[in-house]
Amino acid sequence: MKRRPAPGSQMRRDGQSGVTLIEMLVALALFSMIGLAGFTMLRTILDAQERTEGRMERLARIDTALRLLASDVETARPGSLSWDGATLTLSSEAGATVWTAGEGGTLRRGLSVPGASEPDTAPEQEVLGGVAGWEWRFMAPGDAGEQWVPLWPPETAQAERPASPRAAQAVLSVALGAGGTVQVSRLLLPVQSPPR
After folding, report:
1. Is 101 exposed, middle or buried (CB count within 10 Å of its CB: 0-12, 13-18, 19+)?
2. Is 16 or 137 the better-scoring residue by pLDDT?
3. Could you read off the pLDDT of 127-153 as tens digits, one per residue?
4. What span, in angstroms and rounded, lies between the C-alpha atoms of 90 and 103?
5. Alpha carbons 85 and 106: distance in angstroms, whole number
6. How far apart are CA 62 and CA 123, in angstroms?
């Protein structure tokens, strides 16, 4: 049994008991490094999630624009589709529609009232920003078979000109943030004229 020192006398310290200041500082430094590593990892995960969400929103906007464009082309009246290299014009039962890639790289859609052949002065709808360019090509039937042409209606004699292309392909060059510009294409099937 150990003896207790008498009150008022000085206690001797055993070399193994307690924590020294150096040990405490080492423990604090280790816990600080572990905490810093955890914070850095959490920050990296949150940054990656934020970038991914931004890209997903951008892709959703691009997909929405392409769906709207496809809807307009696929419901257009036969023979109403026209592409001059800058503007896509078409008409349907809902009225005339004009698509343009305007200043600042914004894809715009203008609508008119039903029954009109040209869009009126209704405000344009900004469908998609960050458009670096857009192109169309159309599959035109011909004597030598079908071929892709860059303009519609094709530059052929009026009697030979088909009312609608067999297919149309839209190619959008869009910015994806810091990732640069990518090309997105969509193949569309316009309504065909009934056979004569």
Report:
1. buried
2. 137
3. 999 898 899 999 987 766 788 899 888
4. 21
5. 16
6. 21
Q: What is the pTM of this model?
A: 0.69
Which residue reads 């914004």 in tokens?
106
Assess contact for 128 and 62: CB atoms under 8 A: yes
CB 184 within 8 A of CB 62: yes
Say how far apart CA 160 and CA 168 lie, in whole Å.
19
Residues 44-60: b if buried by 16+ CB within 10 A, e if exposed: eeeeeeeeeeeeeebee
75-86 tens-digit pLDDT: 888 888 889 988
How many Cα atoms are found within 13 Å in the side-chain-facing hemisphere of 35?
6
Q: Residues in the chain, how many?
A: 196
Question: What do you get for the CA distance between the two ends of the chain, in Å?
Answer: 118
Strand partners, 88: 83, 99
